[in-house]
Structure formats: structure tokens, C-alpha cells
Amino acid sequence: MPVGLREGLMDNAKTLLKVLMIVFGYAGIGPLLGYWLRGRDVARRVTLGFMAWWLVRPPSDFTLMLYSIEKYRGHTKGFEFNLIEGITLGLALCAWWEQRRDFRFLPPGLWAWLLFVGVGALSVAGAMNPTYALMPVFKFLKMGMIFVGVFAALHDERDVMAVMRGFAIALIVQVIYCLWRRYVMGGFRVMGWFEHQNPMAMWSYMIAMPILGLALSKQTSPRDMSLFFAAFGAAGLVVVLSVSRAALAAFGVGTVLVMAGSYVQGITVRRVALGVLGAACGALVLIKAADTFMARMGNDSSPKNDLRFALNQQAAAMHRDHPLVGIGWNNYGLANSRPQGLKYSQVLEHWEENRGRRIYPEKYMANPLTESLYWLLLAENGTLGLAAFLFFAALTLWHGLRATQHFWKSPLGLVLYGVTVALAISYFHGQVERVLTQTKNLTTWVMLCAMLARAEWWRRQERAQRMAARSSET
Questions:
Q1: What is the domain partition of the chain in residue ranges?
Q2: Where are the beta strands (DSSP E) in 210-354?
Q3: What distance separates the 2 farthest-apart alpha carbons in the chain?
Q4: Model's pTM, two decimal places?
Q5: Can you tell me the distance from the alpha carbon of 379 to that of 126, in angstroms, rounded to the nearest whole number?
Q6: Closest by alpha carbon to 278, among 327, 335, 184, 209?
Q7: Burial category of 259 from C-beta neighbours within 10 Å (exposed 0-12, middle 13-18, buried 19 and up)
Q8: From CA 187, how far away is CA 372, in angstroms rounded?
Q9: 38-62 as b/e, with b when 16 or more CB fall inside 10 Å?
Q10: Residues 326, 374: contact at Cβ < 8 Å?
Q11: pLDDT tens digit string along 6-33?
């Protein structure tokens, strides 16, 4: 048999196997899990915790890609299918089959997410490669399944605790692996089971903030307090091991905000003790890592020598030419590189020339993407796409603030405040990192947004009950 024919048959067999696994994950595992979970509260909570913990594993453990283009330097490299989506499908079906009155196909805020995806889909028609643009449309649209599933599975505060315990265990597992990579394998900027150290650091502090809130809550049991504080410390150590200056600053600001919020609730022995212990441990770690961070601080970040500046200039040029809906979702890697994106590649090439570099065209066939989430959205999705994203982000923060205020004196108060702080810092951090587009960070983000949506739902229901009670009294 000719080699080409044999390789073609092998590729077809692999694709068929992937399709069968995908069908089983969505049409098999999802419905079967949902049917089995009916009426089993403990099993549902274990499933929620497992789902949160599983996110720390390598992406290949829970994702499969069809039409994979691994060499492409875009933020989406194929039509991605996610086992966690299958699990959340089961959680949603469980609530539906239980005929729960609080189940909704369109939870609070999901409509804004779908609006963002719909506006992004407008860029498909004018994209350099429409297939590449359909990939994130497919990926981000399916994130709605996670939103619905997590919303449906959160029946009370015990379910929120189950999710946070899963995340806490994930952080502890991650720091053990990172320490092994750093001190046994001799790595420098470790990345754990992530594609890069920056998304690892951002993911860690994103879930560390609500975990810290739980550790500080006076309603948290001593056993859970120990778990959550250990996980928070693990997150801080992971951020230090990533050698990410922006993530370290974000972690520090978030910690101060959550600690300050807990003191507003009241000063307790637990909060003072954890604050002092955390500050002491953080100081020791920073002293240990000072040389590493000082080496990074010495890098010249002026526009002349900062690649991010040139890449943002590319994005600005794309937005000027395609201001409304952009050059096409996930098409930045084509538009900024030779041969198709010669015009925008020359922006980078001129920057290199001004630095005294010689230009070799073959080196500009796969240029990197801008690291700013917002410049990437402006370039690929235009003004409409960025506006839709900012609207969804603002809505999630609004849900977080209202839910935090409503549940401030309950066990949920500090965890909702921690989630709100984490999202606010992540959105601000998006100016220099685009990691909210990557699977692990994207999934975690949607899970936290669904948690705030459920809290907003509880707030509305309690308000409606109070109003009904007042009406009946009058």
C-alpha cells in the first residue's frame, strides 16, 4: 500500500475515533449522568467538585479537536469539543428532568454572552478564512452549555462550597507539580499543565480570590478553612513560580481587596491571624524569588524594544481598515503574517528595521498575536465586538456587586465578593494578556459568571418573596 494512502487511512481512522468519542461524550455521558444524578444531591456536589478540579489537568485530558491546525498561531486551533461541556449538559438535564422550578434555559446574563458570540459571528463573512472564524464562534457558543449547567446545578450554598473545594484541591495539586518542575526538573518559568505560564498564573489568582473569601468567612469550618488557606497559599506560590509581574501585582491587589472586605464585615481573630500568616509567608517567598523578578524587571519595556507595542500597532491598523466587525474572529494570525497579511506584517517589519534589524521575509510567515485581549477584539471583531464584550463584562460585575451586597452577612457574602474582585482584576489584566480566550481560563471564567448569575437569581427570588409578603399583609 502506498505510504500516502496508508497515512490518509490512518488520519481518517483517527478522525472517526474522535467523532465517536465526541458523540459518546455529549449524547452518552451527558444524558446518562443527568439521569443518574436525579435526586442525588451528594453525587451532584461531587460532580461539581470533580469538574472544577479536572480543569487543572492538561487540556488534552478533556478536549478533542476536529480540523486541528496546531501550527496556526491563532487563539483557536480547530473545532473544539470539551468533556466538561458534556458533564454540564448532564447537570442541566438533571435539573430539567427533576422539573425544578428554578431551572432556566436562559439564566441571568447568558443573553449578553450570546449577544457577544452573535456579534463575533458577524465577522465570519468578511474574514480571510471564514472556517477559522467559525471555530471560536463554535467554541464560545458551546460555553453557554457550561453556563446553563453550572447555573442549574447550584441549588444552595453547599453546592458553591463543593465547587470551591474542587478548585482548592486543583490549586494544591498544581503547586506540587510546579515545584517538581522547578526544583527537580530545573525549569525557570514553569507553566504546570497549561499552555503557557501566564494563563496558569491568571487562572490561579482568579480562583484564589473567592477561596480566600471562604477561608476568612467566620461560617467556614476549621477543616475547610485549612484547605482553603492552603489552596490560597498554593495559588500565590504558583504565581511567583510563573515569574509573571502582572499576575503577581494582580494577586497582591486582589488579596488586599478581599482582606479589606473581610475587615469591613468585622475584625476577628481568624482574619487577623490569617492576614499576618499570609503576609509573613508571602514576604519569605518574595525574598526567595527576588533575584528572579529583578532579572525580569531589568528588561527594557519602552516602545522601541517592547514587541507588544508593535503588535498593538498592527491591531490598530486592522481596526482602522475594518472598524465595525473586524478582520474576522481568529484571523489575526493570518492578517498579521506573510503572505496574506503583508500589509500588517510590514508594521512589525518596520518596527524591527527601526531597531537596526535586517528583514528576512521568511521569518514573518507566522507572527505572534497581540497579547492584549482588547486590541485583539478590536482587530478581529471590531468596535461592535469589543462593545459586546465590555457589556457582558460590566453585567457580570453588576451581578457580583448586587449579589455581594444582598448576601453580605451570609456564608456566601465573602465568596461572592471574591468572585467579583477576581473578575474585575481579570478584566483589567486583559489589557496585557489575552488568556480569557484559552480553554481553561475561558471555562473557569464562565463557571464563575454562572455562579454570580445563580446568586443574582436567588437575590431576585428573595426580593419577590418579600414583596409578595408585603402585598398580602396590606
A1: 3-300+371-470
A2: none
A3: 87
A4: 0.92
A5: 13
A6: 209
A7: middle
A8: 26
A9: eeeeeebbebbbebbbbbbeebeeb
A10: no
A11: 655 666 677 788 888 888 888 888 999 9
> Which helix (H) or strand (E) covers residue 366, if one does?
none
Rounded to whole angstroms, how far apart are CA atoms 324 and 122? Answer: 10
Query: Which class for 306: exposed (0-12), middle (13-18), buried (19 or more C-beta within 10 A)?
Result: middle
The SS3 assignment for 100 reads coil
Lookup: cell for 284: 519569605
63 has which bridge partners?
Answer: 82
Residues 189 and 287: their CA atoms lie apart, in Å, by 17
| Structure-block grid coordinates of residue 311 | 503588535
Q: Which helix H or strand E contains 63, and what residues bound it?
A: strand 63-66
Give the helix, strand, coil percentages of the chain, each rounded to 5: 75, 0, 25
**315 CB neighbour count, 10 Å cutoff:** 26
Q: What do you get for the CA distance between the two ends of the chain, in Å? A: 87
Count of H-run helices and E-run strands, the chain: 17, 2
Dihedral of CA 429/153/409/406: which sign? Answer: positive
Q: Which residues of the chain have pLDDT under 70?
A: 1-12, 274, 278-305, 474
User: Do the Cβ atoms of 90 and 31 come closer than 8 Å?
Assistant: yes
Identify whether the C-beta of residue 70 lies closer than 8 Å to the C-beta of residue 184. Answer: no
Give the residue carrying C-alpha cell 524587571. Answer: 297
Q: Which of 454, 472, 370 is nearest to 100 (CA)?
A: 454
31 cis-preceded (ω within 30 degrees of 0): no
DSSP 371: S
d(CA 133, CA 122): 10
